[in-house]
Write a structure and sequence with these properties.
This protein is mainly beta. It has one domain. Helix content is about 5%, strand content about 55%. The strands form two sheets. Strands 1, 2, 3, 4, 5, 6, 7, 8, 9, 10, 11 and 14 form a twelve-stranded antiparallel β-sheet that branches. The chain has a two-stranded antiparallel ribbon with strand order 12-13. Strand 4 (about 75-80) and strand 5 (about 85-105) form a beta hairpin. The radius of gyration is 21 Å and the shape is elongated.
Length: about 230
């Protein structure tokens, strides 16, 4: 029954663009996406996500997201390394498509629970530390990235209230939240603070894998402004 209700919503949203002759007709939609992620472990800092777009293809028969892209612009993240102001460019490259499911909620009308999955290779570059009031570059290697892509399972934060909040609708969008793990990195050079002239910290050099990997990472994303995504 729930699947039939979702299908009905998808068909209404798709008309008249859905192709009836297809065995499994689809609906392509583009949403504006903006939010942030908090990287835990020893980094303990926030990174802005977007503004960008998420493009999804919804299967009108199964009520699943069968394809999609969420390009995250490269950003500089500010954080501390043992109390020393630092920054690095973070580049997240999507690996594989965005997939997911849509589930009809009892109320309100058109309210859905959206569950998505997407993977990203995370790359670090241009690492710098601020010492003596000057930003000093710290060599991190030309190919410092996660061994395995980080898997992000983002879903609608449905509340237990009546009516609920945090739901998704095809014609408006909605919020998504996630907790995810960042695994170990490869291709990275330990950050050598002895390269900074006249600076002799007690910790010397710091491996990236002593700072970044961990499971206590969170993400918040808001989708809005839906529009036709035919041609995705």
């Amino acid at each position: 029954m729930a699947a039939a209700a979702v299908l009905s919503m998808l068909l209404v949203a798709a008309a008249p663009s859905a192709q009836a002759e297809d065995e499994n007709p689809t609906l392509s939609v583009i949403y504006d996406a903006v939010g942030s992620t908090h990287v835990g472990a020893q980094v303990d800092a926030d990174l802005a996500l977007g503004p960008t777009e998420i493009k999804v293809v919804m299967d009108l028969v199964t009520a699943q997201i069968v394809d999609g892209t969420l390009t995250i612009p490269s950003k500089v993240m500010n954080f501390d390394i043992f109390g020393i102001p630092s920054r690095a460019r973070v580049t997240m490259t999507q690996v594989g498509p965005v997939t997911g499911t849509l589930t009809k909620l009892p109320s309100p009308r058109q309210a859905l629970s959206l569950d998505t999955q997407v993977k990203y290779d995370i790359r670090l570059s241009n690492v710098e530390a601020k010492v003596f009031g000057v930003w000093w570059p710290l060599a991190v290697g030309s190919n410092c990235h996660t061994i395995n892509p980080a898997t992000i399972n983002a879903k609608s934060p449905i509340s237990n209230t009546t009516p609920p909040t945090g739901y998704f609708t095809i014609n408006a969008g909605g919020p998504l939240v996630a907790n995810y793990t960042i695994g170990n990195f490869t291709g990275c050079t330990p950050l050598n603070f002895f390269d900074i002239p006249g600076f002799f910290p007690w910790f010397g050099s710091v491996p990236i894998n002593a700072l970044v990997p961990g499971s206590n990472n969170t993400l918040e994303l808001n989708l809005s402004n839906p529009r036709n995504g035919d041609g995705l």
